Amino acid sequence: MKRIVKENFIVTLIAFGLVCVSCASSPKKEAVKSDPVMKVEDAKIDEVDKVVVVDWTDRTLGEISAPTWLKNMRRGNSDTFKELWGIEPRRVVKISMATGKTEATAQALSRAGFAYTQAAELSQKVIGRVGQGLNDMGQLEAVYLAASETKAEMSGLREEAGFYQKVRTTKADTKEQSEQYVYYTVFSMDKATWDDICKKYLMDLMGTEGLETSTQKKIGALFSEMKEDADKKEAAKQAEEEALYKAQIARLATETVKAKASAKEMDAQEAQTKEATQAALDLSDFLL
């Protein structure tokens, strides 16, 4: 069932599908480097919240709080991860993340939010690429809403690894401290599986009422690009995609989106998954 997202224009598609899969295997040992606690660096550090990682997976075994493979995965490049874990080069590797008050909660929400994360990735590309050629605000709005409410149905996944960070945040104004966990779950799938996910997502999107035939053709033309872009090789490519997306959202912000559904219409679990996933995305900018 499709739902329309909140009217703050951030693509927050929720696709609740708890993935129950096997535990992760261990990677080859990554070179250990001295790891000062991750924290916000700022000329006026006293005026911003301080975020530090106080614990993480395999800390006692010499693992660092933000390993290179995780940083690269967050930026869309899975080559380092594939090498460390011995993953076949043609398998597509994706990451999901979420926050929680306990490690177990964060892990469960990370798994549950995986389909949402992938749908957000696909819709970002659609809005950025297709919206670039749309001059009519109403048509861009239709693309935004359709892409936001179209779900990515995930199947054929294999859980490869999990990694947690225990994060302590100190408020700059009150000095109040709070702690939460960020859990990262890495999945892999056959290339054919990812191709099928892209195809179904785009087909569902093109079948949405309100999209003109010309726009549907532009959306359909993205199929090859999405297939080949399964694992981004350059951070610049992802940065360009995000910039295009933000430009389209800025255009939408000048008009009122006719969204009638609100967060209250989401069931409690969907709302929790969305909030936890978005919070992890925001935190990762500080931590990785």
Structure, explained:
With 288 residues, the protein is α+β, with helices and mostly antiparallel strands. The chain has 10 helices and 4 strands. Strands 1-3-4-2 form a 4-stranded antiparallel β-sheet, with helices on both faces. Helix 1 crosses helix 2 (79-85), helix 4 (114-131) packs across helix 9 (235-252) and helix 6 packs antiparallel against helix 7.
Q: Outline, from the CA principal axes?
A: globular
Bin the helical content.
40-55%
Which class best fits the helix and strand makeup? alpha+beta
Low-confidence stretches: 1-25, 36-40, 258-263
What portion of residues belong to β-strands? 5-15%
- Tell me how many strands there are: 4
Distance between the termini: 35 Å
- Overall pLDDT metric: 80
Order of helices and strands: EHHEHHHEEHHHHH
Using only CA atoms, what is the Rg?
19 Å
